[in-house]
Amino acid sequence: MRIEFVQVDRTAPPADGAVAVIAFEGGGLSPAAEDLDKATSGALTRAVASGRFSGGRGQSLELLAPAGLENARVAIIGLGARAEFGPEAAELFGAYAYQAVKVSGAATLTLPMPGASAEEAARAAFGSRLASYRFDRYRTTEKADKKPSVAAVRVAVDDPDAAAAAYAPLAALGDGIFFTRDLVSEPANILHPEEFARRVKALESLGLEVEILGEAEMAKLGMGSLLGVGQGSVRESQLAVIQWKGGGDAQPIAFVGKGVCFDTGGISIKPADGMEDMKWDMGGAGAVAGLMHVLASRKAKANVVGILGLVENMPDGNAQRPGDIVTSMSGQTIEVINTDAEGRLVLADALWYCQERFKPQFMVDLATLTGAIIIALGNDYAGLFSNNDALSDNLLKAAKAEGEPLWRMPIPAAYEKQIDSMAADVKNTGGRPGGSITAALFLQRFVNGLPWAHLDIASTAWKKPSSVPTLPEGATGYGVRLLNRMVADAYEG
């Protein structure tokens, strides 16, 4: 979708296409809405007064070809209290506006925003773009009237150049989010570990350095924990190592992603109902890949490492069995109690490799790790587990600023006994009580004193359905905004 910033002209309303304006709680109109109301001899005021539209956030009201705008359609978007209008509300305005007219037949959507700041105008454009995401590459018989018609969003502002400059980093962020959403949306017969690695390798065109380790290289490194997960698949496991070097001689920061491209549960096989959703069990790796895409696109002034453990968990005759004992890269032995607790086995080796090779300031891992986090926090919050308060604070601040909610969870040492094994150094599951906590405690055993945070994003990587206009139903790209903001605010020189 094309984004344009043009000079606002309050005396000449758009002659065609769709135009969206703002109404506030109680029926108050924005300046642009007042202009259109005058141009249509009060049509907007009459429309608002004729029904139950109150200007509440998310409400919308459409007028088709009102007198004075015979070739246009007008969408009135409710945004709640006028006093609460700012960049966040502007982003929602753009998203709600796009959703209101996306299949209307209009090719353009104009958002007149006289008096808005450059940031507010940029965020409105960004909201429209995020709302426009649609994974439709495999739809071949969809009727034309069901497809979005809006190909361009035109934001009319007082200073188009300033708005365009403010939008540039958001454009890079949008590219990274869409890259993640595409990865997470792909079916597993297309996006297996080798294909995932190939797509990440292609990011070298942005200036990233990418290495791909295959099973032979990982075996030499002693990654028995990661390799055990993928041994039942005909697809070779991969480890993608991505580096962005924008921070001179600074010590790098690191992000590690769980990339289980499909998770049957292995021998501990999952129920058939809903198993198709396990194509998105690589959402953590997808988020890290999208983050690296953003950082390279906007030339971040930081040294950043991304590590992706890419596997497929399948139940063939060579698959890992419950009761098997594997040796991790750290040297610790792991008793595999449940082969469906596989993501932590992948991360155990990926985390150890990351800290051993790169000696980063900190590590943050992202993983669709446990169903228990959904039971604990519902479908809107990801769980944050960490051994470091300063790192946690930076994550929580960024999460609040970007609207990607996080909730810090405890990792009490007393729960360690749940993952003690009689046969090995540790076992990979501690049972149902505190399941997301014991998973985090397992990961912590492979963090050698380094500041570390674990984000369990099982509740947020995929929405079905979504009530947030910037999030589509399906892959959300959760984590890309949050981590990009944290890097920008706390770790760029």
Describe what this molecule looks like in 3D.
A hairpin with a 5-residue loop joins strand 11 (325-327) and strand 12 (333-335). This protein is an alpha/beta fold and 493 residues long. It contains 14 helices and 19 strands. The chain starts with a strand and ends with a helix. It is elongated and about 80 Å long. An 8-stranded mixed beta sheet has the order 7-8-10-9-13-17-14-15, with helices on both faces. Strands 1-6-5-2-4-3 form a 6-stranded mixed beta sheet, sandwiched between helices. Strands 11-12-16 form a 3-stranded mixed beta sheet.
Number of helices in the DSSP assignment: 14
Strand fraction equals 15-25%
Largest sheet: 8 strands, mixed
Shape: elongated
Please give the share of residues in helix. Answer: 25-40%
Distance between the termini: 33 Å
Number of strands: 19
Structural class: alpha/beta
Using only CA atoms, what is the Rg?
24 Å
Low-confidence stretches: none
Integer average pLDDT: 96
The strand line-up of the biggest sheet is 7-8-10-9-13-17-14-15
